[in-house]
Amino acid sequence: MDRSIPWRWEVRDRTLIVRFDTPFRTLGWAPMGGGFSRARVVANHQVSADDSGATEAPLRYLRRTIRHLAIDPRGVVAMMTGANVGQAAYAFASRGSLVAGAWCTAGCTNALRVGDRATFASAAPGTINLIVALNEPFDDSALTEAVQITTEARVVAVQGAKVASTRSGKPATGTGTDCLVVATPVGKDAHRYCGKHTVAGELIGRAVLASCARALVREARNR
What pTM does this model have? Predict the structure, then answer.
């Protein structure tokens, strides 16, 4: 593997596992390790529609799942999806020494448009989950902006795939249960900015757009 890319990944037992060579700072809203956290592993586990434990006690469910994979749940950030993680799409973009990687799993049966009328009833499982990693440190504000860039790229990919909201019929901007995690190494000389004028923002956008577009194509073929 290229030494400038400090991560490895695999799909095992319906779980996408991204491992980092060193502890990474993470930001996202995963059920396990959400908010700012540190992780050596970010996981995305595929749940069954009839698996009530996943919805009734998601944190306990995910901890049990991670232990079953023989991974110490300490230092793990994990999320869930009803989409087929075997169809996960990976893409990366680089310039100079900076590299951004993105993994996307896509399900659109729960597609919605931001601003659609709220629905509290149970929805069909369908989620677009994203893991994004960079090989250089980011400070808190840059990491937060990276989440915004990732979200923006996901919206562009969803609208490029012409996915419609199941609620309003208008162009969807995602699903009702999307989740994402952005991860960067712990270290000094962190990036302070990550907007669309920066190389970091450009690389995140390119990697997320490519991975999300591929995952959506695979999802459409199997729909």
Answer: 0.95
